[in-house]
Amino acid sequence: MMDEAAFLEQYDITAYRAPIATVDMAIFTVLEEQLQVLLYRRGEHPHKDRWALPGGIIDVGVDVDLEAAARRKLHGKTGVASPYLEQVATVGNGGRDPRGWSLSVLYFALLPAEGVTLSHGWGAAQAQWRPVTEDGVDMPLAFDHTELLTAAVQRLRGKVAYTALPAHLLGEEFTLSELQRVYEILLGRKIEKSAFRKRILDAGVVESAAGRKRTGANRPAQLYRRRQSASSHLFPRNLATGDL
Amino acid sequence: MMDEAAFLEQYDITAYRAPIATVDMAIFTVLEEQLQVLLYRRGEHPHKDRWALPGGIIDVGVDVDLEAAARRKLHGKTGVASPYLEQVATVGNGGRDPRGWSLSVLYFALLPAEGVTLSHGWGAAQAQWRPVTEDGVDMPLAFDHTELLTAAVQRLRGKVAYTALPAHLLGEEFTLSELQRVYEILLGRKIEKSAFRKRILDAGVVESAAGRKRTGANRPAQLYRRRQSASSHLFPRNLATGDL
DNA sequence: AAAATAGTGTCTGTCAGACACTATTGC
DNA sequence: GCAATAGTGTCTGACAGACACTATTTT
Which GO terms describe its molecular function (chains A, B) (predicted)? Predict the structure, then answer.
């Protein structure tokens, strides 16, 4: 009979043909009144010169865990360290990558457009924001990234009406009007102002910050910031006008 | 300059130290008026003799995709081929498995207790249903399976009030009273009958089946069955009495 | 008739949705 | 004052939640 220490001694990890393990990122922002996603043009095989979601192979020597791998990819492309990050799903099969059976963990990130400096990183020819139309982007993508992007967009859109997630698309401080505008862009329709404000404030997902924002020939607006609970909070009912 | 075919030709998949890739299953049923989860006692190292969620290493030679791997594990333990299956999350880090950096994709399955014959499968000393109390089970589990189970239970509980998922815990045909009872068990509280029936029927997630069920000295109940849309449907508002 | 569960009808408080109104700034 | 946006108040219809009622079976 063998104990666990002895078992591990003789265990050969390379005896198993493991799948390729990767992380892919759908990085969203709101820019020019549109939801946009960060894509880069692949500079290496496979799918060289095609547009793709940022991502890549998990490095078990560098990444302490899955989320660290995701943050590493994100930081490399945007320079942003700690945006809102959420795991969407994992896909895995023998056909999605010509290199063999591969498994990809998909994350989405939300970040404010200001302060982001896109850098190519190695292996990427270009990186740029592309507007999201309906559930995707109007260009073919490498691998199964079209499907991955659709899944990420649907997850995001599905949560908009029930959570305070869109607040992460704005900077530290923002006005309720700005927040409402982001909701409207994500939902693709107008929201009734009074109901929106009541529900956001009642939910306690934002707190007022000192100071007001003055932009033009009009009444200045109170500034707010996210509260800690903001991301996880589920509104008891729908937030925006109209169901779903 | 190399084209893609030439690239793949010289590409050596074993040059990368990939994580161990596994699938774990939280298999739920309702038995004896309680939510129960299927556990098995490990017959091999590591964590020999500890209770664990069914699962194991993905076999890229056998499993065409991730879900196939999950169904293979499920079928091996229960003999059930096609229950409700949903991906919950993926965890990965260097410390959760003594064999090395490992990555586990967690699924949960819902199935009716009738007709399930538990079999050990190889590598398992015993398999049995264990009641779920609060967010877990009252025994230590192997690896990080306590956390995995908690995640699965929370996902299930979180969706109960907004979806028709609990219908998958019953057989082909069931009465509305039986369905209501399952909801009550999962939510841990009574639901008002009239409201429950109105919302289930209005949502159109079940359809009446021919025949009625007669059990005792009382009025027989109409039988219903799930409709195709049942699993994905989101109720516009909460289904059960009381929020969340 | 009694017991037991199936199934329906009605009332009420709450809240989403609509809309109109007041407030505060620059010009 | 006028334009423009911030922010509030009020009415109404719909529905969740509570509760009481009717219906159908066996014993």
Answer: catalytic activity
Would you state the pLDDT for residue A119? 73
Provide, in whole angstroms, the distance separating residue A195's CA from nucleotide D11's C1'.
Answer: 14
- CATH code of B18-159, in short, is 3.90.79.10
Enter the DSSP assignment of A136. B
Please state which architecture CATH assigns to domain B163-231: Orthogonal Bundle (1.10)
- B103 with A64: Cβ contact below 8 A: no
Share of chain A above pLDDT 70, in %: 84
Partner-chain contact B4 A46, CB within 8 Å: yes
Strand pairing report for A84-93 and A102-110 = antiparallel
B201: the nucleotide nearest its CA (via C1') is: C7
Number of A/B CB contacts below 8 angstroms equals 123
Task: Please calculate the CA angle B232-B165-A91 and round it to the nearest 5 degrees.
Answer: 55
Of B57, B105, B244, the CB nearest to A90: B105
Nearest by Cα to A202 from A236, A228, A168, A172: A236
- Return the minimum-mean-pLDDT range out of A63-67, A159-163, B156-160, B222-226: A159-163
Q: For A70-94, how does the pLDDT look when each residue is reduced to its tens digit (9 = 90+)?
A: 999 999 888 887 789 999 999 999 9
User: Tokens standing for A129?
Assistant: 């924001």
**pLDDT at A240 exceeding the cut of 60:** no
For chain B, which ranges sit under pLDDT 50? 240-244
A50-59, A97-106, B198-207 — which is least confidently predicted? B198-207
The CATH number, out of the four listed (3.40.50.1470, 2.40.50.100, 1.20.1260.10, 1.10.10.10), of the domain defined by the range A161-231: 1.10.10.10
- Rounded Cα distance between A87 and A66, Å, is 10
**Distance between CA atoms of residues A142 and A48, nearest Å:** 9
Find which of A103-112, A127-136, B127-136 is predicted with most confidence, using mean pLDDT. A103-112
